[in-house]
Amino acid sequence: MAAVAAAAVPVLAGAPAANAATTAYPTTYFSVQSGDSWYAGQITWYNRSVSLNGDLNAYGCKRAYGIAWAGTTPLDERSTSTHCDNYTDQNISLAANVPGGADHVRINLTDANGKVLAYRYYYRP
Questions:
Q1: pTM of the complete model
Q2: pLDDT > 90: percent of the chain
Q3: Helix (H) and strand (E) counts for the chain?
Q4: Among 7, 43, 66, 102, which residue is least crowded by beta carbons within 10 Å?
Q5: How far apart are alpha carbons 114 and 51 in whole angstroms?
Q6: Which among 106, 114, 38 has a CA at the least distance from the CA of 82?
Q7: CA 78-60-65 angle, 5° bins
Q8: What is the CA radius of gyration of the chain?
Q9: 1-31: buried (b, 16+ CB within 10 Å) or exposed (e) per residue?
């Protein structure tokens, strides 16, 4: 009789699946309006940046600005391009490269010449 050796087949067991608990970043609704023009949407507060995702409704020529702050220190300022008599999706990404990120933002709505028509402050929840 021929001897039959059982081949050992290793079973590779991976590490147990980690519970991929993703923590949602905090969000805040925003709206800045002047007359019939407005910029409104959602702020997402990341650890080292802030994202303004919104819609710009421009009667005449308008532009939206976002400024990220940590306390009394401005961290970053950016704007959309100027839009005239239209409705468009406009997103602004702001750097906040400090421990804890930005604690508040200022959102401006300006005319084509940069004159601030309306602004509001929003604070990290």
A1: 0.81
A2: 81
A3: 0, 7
A4: 7
A5: 22
A6: 114
A7: 10
A8: 25
A9: eeeeeeeeeeeeeeeeeeeeeeeeeeebebe
Query: 85's torsion region: left (phi>0), alpha (psi -120 to 50) or beta?
Result: left
Structure tokens at 73: 């220190």
| pLDDT of 18 above 60 | no
Q: What is the DSSP string of 23-53?
A: PPPPEEEEEEEETTEEEEEEEEE-SSEEEEE
DSSP 56: E
pLDDT digits (tens, 9 = 90+) for 42-92: 999 999 999 999 999 999 999 999 999 999 999 999 999 999 999 999 999
